[in-house]
Structures
1.
Amino acid sequence: MILSAVKGMSDLYGSRAIRWTKMEETIKKIVASSNFTEIRTPIVEELALFKRGVGESTDVVQKEMYDFLDKKGRHIAMRPEGTAGVARAFVEHGLGLNEPLPLKTFYIGPFFRYERPQKGRYRQFHQFGIEVFGDETPQIDAELIFTAMRVLTSFGIQAEVHVNSIGCQKCRADYREKLISYFSTKKEGLCEDCRNRLEINPLRLLDCKVCDPKTRCADIPKITECLCDDCRGHFEQLQRSLTIFGVPFVVDPFIVRGLDYYTKTAFEITAITGGSQNAVAGGGRYDNLIHDIGGAQMPATGFAMGLERLFDLIPEDFFELPQVSVGYALSEDAVDQLVAFAKNMAGQPLNFFADYKPKKLKKALQKADRVAAAFTFIIGEDEAKEHLILVKNMETGEQKTFAQNDIETILGFCR
Ligand code: ATP
Ligand code: MG
């Protein structure tokens, strides 16, 4: 029986792994340059954290959790998103008291959702995200959007920013009422989930991909018409700051985010190229989450970017793959010398590796072609007698013999 990976989860290897790592390194460099520091939290948390931190009524908690009982009967879940774990760590370690605020963090790693696998949607996927604590300003929200766009443009990706304000608990209560009365006459057109949502979390109707009221119904009330003075001022300043950061945006009053803890700013970034799964990042402000999970009242804001979707948007030839060079011994006697040569080449810029099993010249050159070696190094019988090595430039065909220990001259030839 051949075992295969769990459905919706995949292996990363070969040139894809090399490009993936380069993508992650680029992201880390960009965020480090704006003083975001990494935070790593466990892959699993107590299920209760996500119920409280993500929201009982969300699809993520109701349908998409990878959860299980551990050997002591604790109810554990694989993390479906990053914010709840980071917020838990923030509270648990008293970071609000011990670290200078605002605290600017980023994370990158795997997440798990039990969804129907399809292109751009997997059961193990990866996100890069940013969370900032202790800064209530609209300017930091704008900086996060700017940072997400810096990441995308660094890969040559064009994207569109959609912003909204979903208000605070006060203005959202008014909006809820308006939505409930608007949709109460339109229940027939709603899917079963949305009929339930109307009772518990009517804002989520605007997020539904099944009956999609957002595009089918006219004159749905807009939250932007219900904002209190504080929330409206915050939203206007956000837009001014985005303009100063040079980030074009459109106001989309129907962005709601799937998760319950958001307040004020909500945004989505969609790639202009790419298929149907083109929402590449989403985020917003969550001023109530830290308090909801047992901490002090603490403003917070963040976003998450889906790395599979990002990766698919990066042109295949965007990253240069590193070139390798390879060494062969043509006889058993030459192998020790090849070992010594490999030791001397370690850490040199040619990405040298030795293929220790002796082989005939023709076979060696065929193998060098298969790994697309830039330079091939050969120790044949004659070379071995005098501690020499033959170096062949595989592109030009030029070849020359050197003393095996004269690494400097060899590197000069290979430049
Ligand atoms: P969607 O509306 O596509 O289901 P979402 O609202 O569930 O997205 P978020 O929870 O905001 O997504 O996650 C942020 C980003 O993570 C998304 O924009 C997307 O790029 C990525 N993402 C979410 N779920 C998956 C998944 N199952 N597989 C791959 N990427 C995902
Ligand atoms: Mg989803």
2.
Amino acid sequence: MPQGKFITGIYPGSFDPVTKGHLHLIRRASRMVDKLIIAIATNSRKTPLFTDYERLEMLRIDIDNMLDKGCDIEICSFDGLLVEFAREVNSSCIIRGLRAVSDFEYEFQMTGMNAKLDPDIETLFLMAADKWQFVSSSFVKEISSLGGEVDEFVTPQVANKLNKKFKKCN
Ligand code: PNS
């Protein structure tokens, strides 16, 4: 990163719900920038299980509990284009995680389209650590909805909220 420049990074996503894989990436990204904005997309093509408010609250609790943050972390929702949001918050650095090869095509297209919409905004990728390669919010929801345990993949407060959504008694 260039010396003397204040860098705000944006980590966008659906976070439906936040997983330990997301948290690991947030921790790493927070060491690379001066400020990290976690941006929850509210107009995603996906129909979320959790409301915008629930997703924001779950992230807020997990970030508050994160001991080794490298920088200021802010959590916001946005409902328009990601590049427009990036411009609004004066950021030219989008950070995304990459897991298996299957993520690549989608991320490649999204990065290309975002670059067409605003060539001044760069997307940086961090490879997911081995431990979190296969963890996704979608699988966590499916496992939980079918009665499986998700404690390994999400924090206890998120596991509780999933249990409540799927009306499992502890
Ligand atoms: O966690 P996800 O669902 O993979 O995140 C996808 C997200 C939210 C980053 C993407 O859908 C997005 O940027 N949505 C905002 C709308 C937008 O800018 N669309 C154009 C993308 S080229």
